[in-house]
Amino acid sequence: MAQDDVFKKVVAHCKEYGFVFPSSDIYDGLGAVYDYGQMGVELKNNIKTYWWQSMVLLHDNIVGIDSAIFMHPTIWKASGHVDAFNDPLIDNRDSKKRYRADVLIEEQIAKYDEKIEKEVAKAAKRFGESFDREMFCQTNPKVLAEKAKRDALHERFSVAMNNVDLEELRQIIVDEEIVCPISGTRNWTEVRQFNLMFSTEMGSTADGAMKVYLRPETAQGIFVNYLNVQKTGRMRIPFGIAQIGKAFRNEIVARQFIFRMREFEQMEMQFFVQPGKEMEWFEHWKAFRLKWHKALGFGDDKYRYHDHEKLAHYANAATDIEFKMPFGFKEVEGIHSRTNFDLSQHEKYCGKNIKYFDPELNESYTPYVIETSIGVDRMFLSVMCAAYTEETVSNGETRVVLKLPAALAPVKLAVLPLVKKDGLPEKAREIMNELKFSFNCYYEEKDSIGKRYRRMDAIGTPYCVTVDHQTLEDNMVTLRDRDTMEQKRVAIADLREMLQDKVSITSVLKKLS
Ligand code: ATP
């Protein structure tokens, strides 16, 4: 299946089966804002639980908080967001469409990479087994020419971004002859900076109202509370604070479904360390976070690191964990070494001493911080894309099955009476009432058993049990496995023990320790 098609199908599937709806759907939606439906909220909660437990439960030096979305406006001045949380935007005068200048140039760089890959693929086909990729790339004139153009562009782009040189960004777009994909023209405006923070007014009178921001990241809520937590929790460095919460960004180009939203959710952990120890911890968290992703079992080839060349104003090292989405490898999580930038800035702006006293060194210092920051919604999208599968089954029909890790599946067990009579529904309800305390069960009696199995496949339910007439006599049910479609008779009394381990988040957490 073409990857474009996969993405379209995932988006349609999310709506059809109650995972994700456009926000304000009956009013034709609101740009880049989405609602999670009855299945989506369960999957999302499971992702959050997996993250929370892996951070807070598995680490005795990490605790969680839940800070407010509204914060004192000076926080965003101190953090640099008021002055520097900008994206460079450019408009096409003919289509009236707005683009991120940096993204247009990054796409152009990707085009050179694609051309090189095409040449390599052609040669690999021609030479067969004797093909030496490295040698070919070092000697083939076409590849060398494309690579030279690509590297020159990349260098020019990096310099322009680092110097925040907006005129140069525009000049690159002109020189590279980048056209608007809608109008096909090169009629570009100037490049301007656009601040991504949403603001609103707090207070009742117009005079006394204060401009406040909707937080663009959850991290600052952790920074301004770090000493409260350290003192009341008697934490000693190194220690971490975790938080899950909403963040808001007025994204210029909001496309690709829940990949880039204006209201989204982040799971962030700030890890406070002694100055000079940050690189050690940076490597530690880089490795741990990748392990967390891989433990879900979608295949190691789906992930890669991408080290940042242009570092944010606060960072001295940064890497992304990218996931292979149907539209290419994309950032799902960022791991950043934020130095002592944020804490020093807050100390300066609030005028209070917020240093940590280290009893082992007998000195006070401003801790350095390693941050792991992952978007719940992007994680959700990566899980849906990896899980969405179309299979041809033995009777020649196609079944759509979400191969979700059982620990993340919204429903763990469907309990299905074979027919809607003869006491089978009552028996099925009895099983539900017994098991619903252990995991999320789903009862359904409408339609043929085959159709009901298909519906459960489509929402990723790992197990179904069918209650038939025989059940009334021997207290055995048919247990069906989503992936293998194998069916076997099992005793009702054994169900909990058989399934609990398989569907619990603990089973994935154990892979991490
Ligand atoms: P991008 O370069 O894609 O805009 P970013 O580097 O600005 O992302 P961070 O500020 O590092 O992102 O945020 C950490 C994580 O939060 C990202 O890895 C992503 O998963 C998530 N995230 C950021 N912006 C959005 C958004 N607009 N919609 C959904 N998730 C987002």
Write the layout of secondary structure elements.
Layout: H1 3-16, E1 20-22, E2 34-36, H2 38-57, E3 62-64, H3 74-78, H4 81-84, E4 86-91, E5 98-100, H5 101-127, H6 133-139, H7 141-162, H8 166-175, E6 192-195, E7 199-202, E8 210-213, H9 219-223, H10 226-232, E9 239-248, E10 263-273, H11 278-294, E11 303-307, E12 317-325, E13 328-337, H12 341-350, E14 356-358, E15 363-365, E16 368-375, H13 376-387, E17 388-392, E18 398-402, E19 413-417, H14 424-435, E20 441-443, H15 449-459, E21 463-467, H16 469-474, E22 476-481, E23 487-491, H17 495-503, H18 505-509
Adenosine-5'-triphosphate (ATP) binds at residues 217, 249, 251, 260-261, 264, 266, 331-334, 373-375, 377-378.
How does this model look, in words?
The protein is α+β, with helices and mostly antiparallel strands. Helix content is 40%, strand content 24%. The strands form seven sheets. The protein has a seven-stranded mixed sheet with strand order 3-9-10-16-13-12-11, sandwiched between helices. The longest helix is centred in the N-terminal third of the chain and has 27 residues, at 101-127. Bound molecules: adenosine-5'-triphosphate. Adenosine-5'-triphosphate (ATP) is lined by residues 217, 249, 251, 260-261, 264, 266, 331-334, 373-375, 377-378. The site of adenosine-5'-triphosphate (ATP) has 16 residues, from strand 10, strand 13, strand 16 and helix 13.
